[in-house]
Amino acid sequence: MYLGAHIGITGGFDGAVRQAREIGCESLQVFSKSPQMWAGPAIPAEAAEKFRTAVRSEGLRATAVHHGYLLNLANPKPEMLERSRRAFLDEIQRAELLGVDALVFHPGAHLEATKTEGLRTLTESLRAALEEVPDGKVRLVLENSAGQGTTLCSTFDELAEVLRAVGAPARLGVLLDTCHLFAAGLDFRTAEGYGALVDRVDGTFGTDAIRGFHLNDAKAPVGSHLDRHENIGRGEIGVEGFRHFVNDRRWAGVPAYLETPLDERGYARYAEDLVTLRDLIDSGRKPAARRRAAGPAARRASTVK
């Protein structure tokens, strides 16, 4: 598993890469613009090239863009759905320009429509996006939800339904957020619970579809449907709840990104969470890169995500 974090771009896209490496990240997730904007300013070609060069020179193993929070690809209102689809296409094009591996996106909510209608709209939105970018290299990665309100894809069955309906395994995958899994009612804190979780993945969309993780502890109890992230080991999941994830050989080449809370120390908080996770890895399986310590710059980093 390539352990990393979500880093802000206030210091530029290439600056995010350097900040990520300073705290020991092997993978990096960024926003390509403010997540509260429908459309952001164009990314200068020079900035994109600097980012790609920095990724190569710093040796990051995986990169991703996380889409903005406004769009809803399952929106039943035609005007808002069209706006969401345009925004999603813009996100894809920005991710393609940056040359990242994946675009992480939320499934959206069906609102006043039915769940069946919402899943159908989401599927149609994804098909349309893939048709607009037929030669795209960035994989679209669907994140599971906590099941709050009318949000879709809090269950593996719903994730599998979307993947089957879109029918583009080479271009579409799944990202599992541990806080969301826990909030949706999946208790993986024991070996038995983790085994049951993986069995459910195998029985629905399959482990090969998993293209990323968000490793977040949870503030709220299992089954709460509340999307409230906590630092590793400080929430309801606890440190031991992550041991099976970081040692599972099935995820050896899969990136995992922290989205845990930050404080006045900035990304030093991420660095602590990375150390906690790496301490769980069996000693015989820890490559040198995974033991990289956080440098002084990590403690000066911005708290802006």
Report on this model:
The protein is of the alpha/beta class and 305 residues long. The chain has helices at 13-22, 45-58, 78-98, 115-132, 156-166, 178-183, 191-202, 243-247, 268-278, 296-300, and strands at 2-6, 27-30, 62-66, 102-105, 139-143, 172-177, 210-215, 217-218, 229-230, 255-258. It has one domain: Divalent-metal-dependent TIM barrel enzymes (TIM Barrel, Alpha-Beta Barrel). The protein is built from ten helices and ten strands. The strands form two sheets. The chain has an eight-stranded parallel beta barrel with strand order 1-2-3-4-5-6-7-10, surrounded by four helices. It is globular. The model is unreliable at 288-305 (pLDDT under 50).
Note the main attributes of this structure:
10 strands, alpha/beta, 305 residues, 10 helices, TIM Barrel
Concise structural overview:
The chain is an alpha/beta fold and 305 residues long. It is 37% helix and 14% strand.
Net shape: globular
CA-CA gap between termini: 22 Å
Strand arrangement across the biggest beta sheet: 1-2-3-4-5-6-7-10
Structural class: alpha/beta
Output mean pLDDT.
Answer: 93
CATH superfamily: Divalent-metal-dependent TIM barrel enzymes
How large a portion of the residues is in β-strands, by DSSP E? Answer: 5-15%
Q: Tally the helices: what do you get?
A: 10
CATH class: Alpha Beta
- CATH architecture grouping: Alpha-Beta Barrel
Q: Kindly report the CATH topology.
A: TIM Barrel
Largest sheet: 8 strands, parallel, barrel
